Each structure stands twice: as C-alpha cells, then as structure tokens.
Amino acid sequence: MSTAMNFGTKSFRPRAPDKGSFPLDHFGECKTFKEIYMRCLRSNRFDNSRCREESKEYLECRMDRQLMAKEPLEKLGFKDLVDDSKKEKEAKS
Amino acid sequence: MFTTINRLINDVKCVVRIPQRLLNPSRGAKINRRKQTQEDDWKKRNKTVLTYIAAAGVGMIGLSYASVPLYRLYCQATGLGGAAVAGHDTEQVETMKPIRDRVIKVTFNADTHASMQWNFRPQQSEIYLVPGETALAFYRAKNPTDKPVIGISTYNVVPFDAGQYFNKIQCFCFEEQRLNPHEEVDMPVFFYIDPEFDEDPRMARVDTITLSYTFFEAKEGQRLPIPGYS
C-alpha cells in the first residue's frame, strides 16, 4: 500500500497503541480464558457484542498475572458490563 | 477689465463675441488648477492603494512560509501530534456509546517477512463489531526453530481512510517480542473503531476493514521508532 510511490498520495501512518504493547504470555497463564473466548466467538458467528463478558475476563486474567497494566474496566470500554454487574449486586442485596 | 468689455458688449450689442474662456480667465485657471490637483489626488490615492495591495501580497506569501513552523508549534501545544486528522483521545474510550445499527466486519491477516521463520497466523478470520465497542482478537505465533528469535511487527489497515478510525488500545506491535525455541504464544489485540466512523460520509459504504500484521526479524539492539510526532 505504502509502496505506491505516487506524488501526493498519503501513505498509511501506523499509530502506536494507546496503552503500549502486551507482554507475551510465555507460560500460557491466560490460555483457558482465551479458549473460552474463542469458543464463544465461534458459537456466536464471531459476533463481538455477545462475547464481551469473556473478553473482559481474559483482560482481568492478564491484569491479575501482571501481564497487563491494571486499569479500571471502564477505561477499557467495559463500562456497561461493570454497571450491569453493579446493578445485579444491588438488586441481590 | 474683461467684465467692462462684457458690459460694453451687452450695452452695444456688438457682434464681436469673445469666447467665454477668455472672458473669465480667472475661473478657467481655477478650474484647470482644480483639475490638476484632482488628478494629483487620484494619482496619490492610486499609489497608496497599490502600495497597500503590494504589502498585502507580500504579507500573504510570508504567512504561507511562516505557517509551517506555526502549525508545528500549535500541534505541540495542543498535543494533536501526528494524529491530527481524527484526533482520538484516550478518555473517549470510557464515554463512547456503541452505534448498534452499523455492523462492521473486521478481517485479520498475518504475514511474515521472507527471512522470518515464525509461523504467524490469526486465530479468527473475522469479527463482527460496531463502532464504539472494544473488541479483542488473537493471533498466534510459533517459533519452530532451535534458536530464540526476536520479532518486531507493524500493522496496516485497509481501506486506508478507515485507518484513522481504527484505534488500538493495546497490541503487540512495534516492540520486540522474543520467542524461545519451539515456543508458541497467543498475541492479543485490543482495539475499537471510533464512533465518528459512522458520521464520516466517505465511510458510508465501508463495511469491511482488514487489519494486517507483518512480523520482521529484529536484530539485536535494533529498535523500530515508535510512530508518532517527534
């Protein structure tokens, strides 16, 4: 794409990720969560909105094992899931 | 003197007619002088107007030369940096609302450089998501050789214009990743598509975005510069 040396065409500019790079999971500590997420995706025809709970759990696994910087889940776009679980807790108590 | 002649003529009704111009020479001279000063005035005004226009022209040229460092200063001050096109800000992730009626298919592609011996492939061929919703995708990389190999990757988004809306929260690119012999790892990419994607008229017919990663082998001590404004 960026090898087309046409004068005036904008070339693609990759951007660095917001929160940097994931450290590699050398020991496969979060592999089970990943498997659960992939299974969910396959059974839901790769629809992301149905598997958000599983992706949240994978990221929580990473955070617990120092494979990801700890961040409140709202900042990762899981505000709706966090709010739902809070509402459930309130409804139960 | 001429007035007396005039009176004499009127009295005598002489046939000799003296032209008006000569009869009133003082008035003529005044008119001529007025015309002269008027012309002078106009000339002066023209000159000033021309000078102003020339100054404005020179000013415009100067401004166009000065705009480059000025814009750079502005970018540094406001922090728009290299992403000035659709400057997304990280606080947006918290508050953005997913746009439910616009489903986009994101397909994944994986490549390696010719001399890179890793087996690198995506674990899902596509994901359907909506703008404003964060999504997780996985790639898998395996080092089949007997030596540890350090890889470094970059990515590409097609269509090019959609790339500005494709925001990665976290991934595995631009940093060295080391794989030990016969090791296989999962590499996640956590990303979202900016909700403003839905409002861009150029994106109205875009339904598929392809994310393509390419791994290169990194030499010891080599560092890819992190892309951005520097």
Q: How would you explain this protein's 3D organization?
A:
The complex is a heterodimer of chains A (93) and B (230). Chain A has 93 residues and is an all-alpha fold. Chain A has a domain of 45 residues. Helices cover 43% and strands 0% of the residues of chain A. Chain A is built from 3 helices and no strands. In chain A, helix 1 runs antiparallel to helix 2. By secondary structure, chain B is an alpha+beta fold. Chain B folds into 2 domains: 60 residues; 130 residues, Ctag/Cox11 (Pfam 04442). Helix content of chain B is 32%, strand content 28%. Chain B has 4 helices and 9 strands. A 5-stranded mixed β-sheet of chain B has the order 3-1-9-5-7, with no helix packed on it. Chain B is rod-shaped, with a radius of gyration of 40 Å. At the A-B interface, helix 1 and helix 2 of A face strand 3, strand 4, strand 5, strand 6 and strand 7 of B. Chain A: Its main location: cytoplasm. Chain A: This is Cytochrome c oxidase assembly protein COX19. Chain A: Pfam families: CHCH. Chain A: It is found in: Cytoplasm.
Spell out the blueprint of helices and strands.
The complex is a heterodimer of chains A (93) and B (230).
Chain A lengths: L30 H13 L8 H13 L14 H14 L1
Helix pairs in contact in A: 1-2
Chain B lengths: L1 H11 L7 H4 L1 H54 L13 H4 L8 E9 L6 E4 L3 E4 L4 E9 L6 E10 L7 E5 L6 E3 L4 E10 L14 E10 L13
Parallel strand pairs in B: 1-9
Antiparallel strand pairs in B: 1-3, 2-4, 4-8, 5-7, 5-9, 6-8
Oligomer: heterodimer
**What structural class do you assign from the helix and strand content of chain B?**
alpha+beta
Helix- and strand-based class of chain A? Answer: mainly alpha
β-strand percent of chain B reads 25-35%
Helix content of chain A: 40-55%
CATH superfamily of the largest domain in chain B: Ctag/Cox11
Overall outline of chain A: extended
Arithmetic mean pLDDT of chain A: 82
Alpha-carbon distance between the two ends of chain A: 57 Å
CA-based gyration radius of chain A? 18 Å
Largest sheet of chain A: none
N/C terminus separation of chain B? 90 Å
Going across the major beta sheet of chain B, what is the strand order? Answer: 3-1-9-5-7
**CATH third-level topology of the largest domain in chain B:** Ctag/Cox11 (Pfam 04442)
- Rg from Cα of chain B: 40 Å
Q: What's the helical proportion of residues of chain B?
A: 25-40%
Give the CATH level 1 class of the largest domain in chain B. Mainly Beta
Mean model confidence by pLDDT of chain B: 83
Q: How many H/I helical runs of chain B?
A: 4
InterPro entries (chain A): CHCH, COX19, Cys_alpha_HP_mot_SF
Domain CHCH (chain A): 30-63
Protein name (chain A): Cytochrome c oxidase assembly protein COX19
Family (chain A): Belongs to the COX19 family.
